[in-house]
Structure formats: structure tokens, C-alpha cells
Amino acid sequence: MAMLPFSVIRPRQGFVERTYLWEALHGLIVTFRHLFLNLGRHLLRLLGARVAPGAVTIQYPEQPAVLGRRARARHFLLRRADGFPRCTSCLLCETICPAKCIHITAEESPDVMVEKRAKSFDIDLGLCVFCGHCVEACPCDAIHMDVDQVELSSYTRSGMIWSLPALMRGKPQGGAPS
Amino acid sequence: MAKTIKFTLDGRVIEAREGETVLQAATRLGLLIPHYCWHPALGNPGNCRMCNVEVEGAPKALVSCRLYPKEGMVARSAAPAPRRWQSAALEFHLVDHPLDCPVCDQSGECGLQDYYMNSIGRYRSSMRDNKWHMGKRMVLGPHIMLDQERCIMCTRCTRFVDLISKSHELGIFGRGHSQVIDLVPGRVLDNPYSGCVADVCPVGALTDRDFRFQVRVWYLDWTDSICPGCSRGCNISAHTSTRRPWQNKGLRLARVKPRYKPEVNGHWICDEGRYGFLNYDSDRLGKVMRLKPSAEELSWEAAAAEVSSALRRKPAEGLAVMASGRLSNEDWQAFQKLFLEKLNVRRFLFAPEPDQVGAEDELLRRRDKAPNLEGGKAVGFGTRIASMSWDSLAADIEAGKVWGLYAVDRDPVKVWDQRGHELLERLDLLVYQGPRKGLTGELAHYRLPATDWLEEKGHFTNFQGLVQPYRQALKPLGAAKPDWAIFEGLAARL
Amino acid sequence: MTKVLTEHWDQPRLHELETYRRLGGYEALKKVLGMDRAQLIDEAKKSNLRGLGGAGFATSLKWSTVTPEEKNPGPRYVVVNCDESEPGCFKDRVLATRNPHQLIEGLLIAACAIDAKQNFIFIRGEYQIQYEILEKALAEARGAGIIKPPVSIDLMRGAGAYMSGLDTALLETMEGKKAWPRQPPPFPTASGLMGRPTVVNNVETLCMVPSIVLRGGEWFAKLGTAKSGGTALFSVSGHVEKPGVYEFAMGTPLREILAAAGGVKGGRKLKAVIPGGVSTPVLTADELDTPMDWDGPRAQGSFLGAGGVIVLDETTDMVMVAHNIERFLAHESCGQCTPCRQGSYWYVRILERALDGGGVAADLDTLRRTGEDMTGKVICALGDTVGLVTRAMMKKFSNDFKAKFHGEPPHG
After folding, report:
1. Domain CATH number, residue B306
2. Residues B170 and B319 in one domain
3. How many contacts, defined by CB atoms under 8 Å, are there between B and C?
4. How far apart are CA C275 and CA C279, in angstroms?
5. Given this model, what pLDDT does residue A57 score?
6. How confident is the model at residue B119 (pLDDT cuts 50, 70, 90)?
7. What pTM value is reported for the model?
8. ipTM confidence
């Protein structure tokens, strides 16, 4: 394609614009407008008036965190009808995990139609990047990340490693269950 | 020069040898036509119908495993029509095949997966009906498990036990879609080559019980090696699991598979070699130790200094050296330099009897269970220098003629039993060098850790005189060094 | 019309040697002993006799392919294929029951054609009565010196597989192995039983041979059409007034055969006719003018087969017929090659589901495509047949199929 020459016309800046004083002032006006507007709204809401909230800040942890519908939080291993985990220890999630934080070992399942199950299933949440690839890779729909529990801290590194029983528990608890 | 037949396959001119089928010629030249039932050592029954090719002038699809090329023939395997036939044949294989991939050990090296993922799978299944169910998780013998549902009836296993091991333990029972592979009534799949049926099975119908659920095949590294189980030196591939150390119970050697070598072992290995080294990581030595008079871990320099001066303390006549055919060619060279040239030792024991001999057969197994006595012969051990017998050595120790024993990867307590403790107590010097502690390791004055065959590279010379290299598959444990390095270290100080 | 096989069927005790001889039996054999091999094969060539087991292969060609003793010393065999298992065909049974000596004579003549000494009659295990009749007839023939050493004829019984009616699978069975067909080359005439040249001929084919020898190949050829010599037996069954075995000249229109059997039972309307045993594609009521010889039915997409004419009236549901036939084929599939082993039972499941009310339109595509995927890509004709049979019914009786395969599949 041929490049046709054309002119770019820049508007000439006036003296005030060149010294930037007006832009700086304009910026301050914007900032203080937000400040007083939101402060006003906060005060009005405090007094009971029904106006829009002043800011989007959530007073966490008094107010719970609101996560998106597809947010990926801690892992959860689903059960079969007989109560055993659905996981057949195929190791696809372990393989695809980019952080190599899933460690699974396999054993024989007493059910001949299932054949294989997880002997141990450990996820190091300290390494996990919460990408969700494990959920996508699983052929048995055995692992989800939709429990929406984000309070996952621990005082020790080893405490960040969740094993099979912990991963199967549905209700969020404070701190990392062992 | 042998007659060749020129024909065209997918636009490429190929020279087939006389008596070769189209499939054989293509495979020899690295052109892959999908197939299951043909195996170069087991014949071409033509029952899987996968290897369809289109031949110009022929009215219908032809299976290339039974097609002998004619001069100037034009055939196509990768064109739309034959690919359609091949994908149809694959669909039929999958109609009743169970969706076992998550639990099946063959995942990652499965014939069905390989063709399905690589261009001939029909990704939209038309199968709406229930699959036919058969036996699962059936133990056929000490090493092999059968899943009848996964079987694709290629008959490679029955052909193996009929043609190669000639043990006839397996048969095909029933007719049509309910046909199954099973043991002949009253038999168990326990021939000395039973592991090979899991090799030839393209799918997860016949699997290794030892390998079951241990580790996924895509975590394994493959290294070309030689089996050290006997003097045949079968070519193997050592499959090691080091990427995910928590898999395979933490053991580094996951399994051993044969490599094709027509002059030595063909396509096969025996069960002794295949399953005999799965305890590779047990009882290993990693520290250089002096145990008597006081137990202390040493550096290699210190140990070399102490041991070399201990070896010179008394006349060489009273020094006996125990070795075996487990030494590589490189080890033997250094061994000879140290013990013959430098130390002038006269007493050597390296004959395989009684702890390194075993069963022999017409197929692969040899009586001599040491891989490299030939390597010793090359430097005189077994030709100029004869081996002592265990009895004569025991007599010499009892008579006080022997004051020191240097044992290289040989376990005298295992051979001499209780008597061994008493004999070894009489010695002024017992140096034990090897990869494992064994029963003798506790009693040594000096214990030098050596690498075992997968942790070093070297050469074995087999009974046919063929020198075969083996590559390093694993890192040495602790301070362990190859035998030849230890010998050289000592020789340098003498 | 001239009857070749059924000429003397009304004679009592035809199965006994004395009766057979009185009516001119074993004269042909005497004549053959004075002929040389080339003459005999030439006569067979002139006759246009083609294998009546269903393949239609020229008998003279089969005999002539066997290399003579001088060039290939060692045993050669004639094996009679009496493993009649095609549903709809029962002519060999009647031949063995009524006129066993005609078969023996034909067999001995064929043995002369290829210098065979040891011969076999492979009879399906279910034909118990016919086995006993043949045993007696053979004993009579041996006693009378008709079968004398070094020539021998031994009876061998099948064990209930349809596949052992196929020549190479029959030979495998005789060798003590599973009835799995071989994949020629080599053909049985080059390497058959125990690796030796073997001619496998159908019962009916061999029964024609004595007449050809006595009255000449040309006479026989003239009875039929240009490419199909002589006559053939048609086993008529199904919705007819008089089911049975009827002999007609090659080229006779199907209409005539149906009329001879008394027409459709109860005066009902004809819906379909299967012309040559269940392996042959179906014909409609409009296709009755089809001449029944080796080439005639091809125009309507079918073939002569083994002449098993199955008549179906208007009350028949063709999907049920398809299911019945496919169930038979799946049950009899030997299981050697994957497409037939898996595909035949897939057909059964689809048709069964349709009969239970669960058929969907997409299944028709599956049936069509799977049939195409099987035909021509299997080891033997059974696999080919699975697709051809249902496809013909789907094409000619599409309404029956549309009625059973309706609705949408549960998920896309």
C-alpha cells in the first residue's frame, strides 16, 4: 500500500496551556469535587438519606467480599453418589497445573467399574496461581473452584497444603483446615 | 544386490525389498501407516483393517499389511479416501471400547489415543447405545492384568504366546462381539517372557501389574541402556521417574522396556530382567565410610589415602580381590591397572558361581547372570588369570594365608552364610565397594559407595563379543562414584 | 421344462443304491473313467455351470486351476460344502435327503477332474438325519465297489457356525481351528486343506455334474441363459401357500417361481421378496420380472445368491425384518476383523432401539454411513452384507424406516 504524505496539524498551544497551570488547577478541581461529593453522600447516608453510595469501597471483613460469578477461589473435590470422591486419579490436573502445585498418588478402588481412585490429593495453595486449568482438564468433573472461600492464610508454609479431606469440605472455615 | 521393487506411496518413490509388504516397506522407511495387528515378529493376520491404502487401478480398499507391491504401483495412505477408511476402522475399534482413559495405564502411549488425536479421529461420536461389557481387572499371572473390554482383538498376545514363548497360555473364546481373550482353562500366564504381552498390546487391555497406577507415562524419561541381568545384554530402555518424585512411591526406576536389536534380543526381554531391578533404589550406599576401628564418614581424598596405604601394609600375596561380571569395560580396565599392575594381587575371585548363575533357555536367558565377564576376559581375567573358588578362598582365609579382602559388588556373607561372618572377622582389612550395603556392608572396615549401572555410562561386552554402550539415566546418590573412578583414585596414590 | 435334479424326486426309495442305479445312476461315473481330465473340464466349461452355493464361480475354472499331479505331486482334495446355513435356503438338505447317491456320483467325478483321492463331505452339525442318510449311502457305495481305495469319502460334521459355510473358513474348521476365513491369495485351489490344492464345491453344483457328463455340456448350457447354464433349485419360504424346493431354469422370472409356490398366502398383497437368502438385498413387489440367473437381479441391486426366495406380505414391518437379519449376522460374525465384529452388533443395537420406540432420524445416517464404512473393508462377505442388506431395505422401503426412526436425539 502506498504511503501518501499528509500533514498533521497540531493546534497551537496558548501561553496558559504551555505553562500547565490551568491543567494542574483543573485536575485539583476534579479531585476535590470527588472528595466533597462523596463525603457529602457518606454523611447523608449516615443520616439515613437514600442516596447513591459515595464510593465502591467495601468495609471488609465486616462486609463479605463480593466475588464475580466465575471467580476462582479455593479448590473443592466433589463426591459421587456413594460418598467417595469423583476423582479417579487420572493426573490430568496435576499435569496441566502451571505451578505444579497439585500432588496426587493413585490406588486401587474397590469398585471394579471405577478401578482407580486417589490415595492422596494435595494442593499447595501457596503455589497455586488460581488459573482454573485443573477444573477444565478434569474428565470426571471432580474438582471445582467455585466455593468462593478466599480466606486461605496460614502461619506456616506447610499449613497452606490442603489434603484430600480438607479439599472435600464444602463450608468455608477460618484459616486452613489440616 | 537383492532385487527391489519400486512403487509410489503418497507421492514418494519407495524401494521395497523382495518379500516385503507395503506396510513393512513404509514402516522401515519411517512412513507411518496406521496399524495394530501387524508386528514384525508376530506376522500379519490383517484383522484390524486399519492399514487401508488406495491403490490406483484396484477396485476397493486394500490392507497394506497383506499387499505385496508391484513394480510401478501407485498407492496412497494419506489421501482423503484412505484416511476416511482408516478413520472408519478406528471408529469401529472405539464402538465398544470403554471410556477408561482416566484410569488406564496405557494413557499417553495408547494406540487408539495416538491415532485418534493425530488426524484420524472422528471427534463427533455417533454411538448412542450402551456398550458391551466384559471382564475387567482380571489377574492373568504374576505380572499381567487383563481388561477384556479394552481389548481390540488384534491377537498379538495370543500370537506371542504361540510363536515366541511357545507356552500357549492365552486363547480367544466365544465368537463375534462377545469374543474375549482369556487364559486357557487351568493355565496361568507365567512363562519367563510374560511381560512381553503387555509390550505388544497396543491398548490397555494387557498391563503390567508392577507398573499399575504407579506413575503416568508422560512423566517418564527414557534412556537407552543394557540389561545387566545376564550375559546376553538385552538392549533396554530404562524408564525413570524423577520429574514428580512423589509418584511411583518415590522410586526412580519406574519400568524397563525392550529396545529392538535383531542380533541380541530381537524385540523382547525376559521377566527376570524386566522385573528384577524394580528395587533399584533400596539398600543404597551414599556415604564414604570407615567403619573400623571407629565409624567416621570420610571424604574421597581421605578414604583414598587410608585405603591405599592399608592395601600396602602387608604383602600382596595375602590380598584377595572379589569382583564379578557386573563391572563395565571401563571398570575392568581400571580394575586391572590397580590390582594387577599396581598392587600385584594374585588371588582373584570373579567366577559367577554360585550367586550369579541361573536358568537358561533357547530364547534369551543365559546361565551366566553377570553381564560382562567378557569385558574381564579382554584384560586377562578368565584367560590368563583364573578365578578362585569360594571354597578355596575360604580355606585360605582360615589357614591365615589371606589377610585382606577387597570385595567389589559381591556379597560374601550372602554366599558363605553364617560362616561368612566368622571368616571375615579374621581379616585385617575388608574393603567393600558397591552400590548396595547387602549383608557384607556392615562388616567392612572401609565401605566405598559406587554407582549402579543406571547412574553411570559405560559398555558391556555380551556373550557374543558385542560391545554395547549404556547411557546414564540417573544422578549418583550421595557421594557415590563409578567403580573405575574409585579404582583410579586409589591407583593414583600407589 | 427339463428337470435336472428333481427329475426322479417322486420315486420312492431314491436314496437307495438299487433305485438310483435302476434309474441310470453311476453311468456318468463309468463314462468319466474313460475320459481324460481335459475332456471332462471342457465339458464342464461348455455347460456354463457356476457354483450354486451362492458365489457363482465357474466350476470348470475352479477345477482347471488345480495344477496337475505331475507338476505338484502330493495329495489334493475335493471337499463338499454341505454347511448350508444361509437362512432361507434348504435345498442342500433336500438333495442330501432325497438323492444322496447323486451327490456321491458328482463328488467322485469332481475327484477325477483334479486327481483327488481323499475327499470329504462337510455337513453342518444340525443336519443329523442327512448325516445318517449319507453315512448309509456311502456304506452302500463302498460295499458295491463304487468307492474303492485309494479313493475315499469321509463325512465331517460342523459345529454350528454360519461362517464355516465359507470355503476358507470351512477348511480352517476341518483343520481343527476356529472358523475364521483366510485372506487369499493363496486361493484354496493352490493351497487349501493342510496347504494342499483343494476344490470346495457346493452340494447342488456337484449334483448337476452327472447329468452334464451324460447329456453333454451344451445340452446343459442351453437349458439356461447366455452366461448361466442349466437349472437351479429355489427354496421358497415365507408368506406363500406352498413353501418348498422348486427347480427352474436359469433366467426364470421371479414371478413364475412365486406362482409355482402358490402365490402369497391367504391371498394377501405381496410387499417384498428376498431373492437369494437373507444375505441378498431385498426386491419390491414391482420387481417380480427379475430373471433369476447370475446377472438378472443385479439391475435391481441384488443377486441370485443360493436361491433362497423369502416372500413377505403386506403385514411385514421391514425394520423388524432388518433387525432379524442383522441379529443373525451379528450372532454369526466370526469376530476376526474389527469392522464386522463391532459394526454388526452396532446395527443390532440401533435397530432394537428403534423397535422399542427410541429411533431417531440421525440413526438413519449412522446406519447408512456405517454400512458404507464396512462394505469392501472387511475380510469376508458377511461384513459386506451387514451394510448392503439394511441399505437396500432403507432405500426401497423408506416409509417403514421413517416411521420407526423419528424425533430428535436427546442432546444434539
Report:
1. 3.40.50.740
2. no
3. 95
4. 9
5. 81
6. confident
7. 0.92
8. 0.93
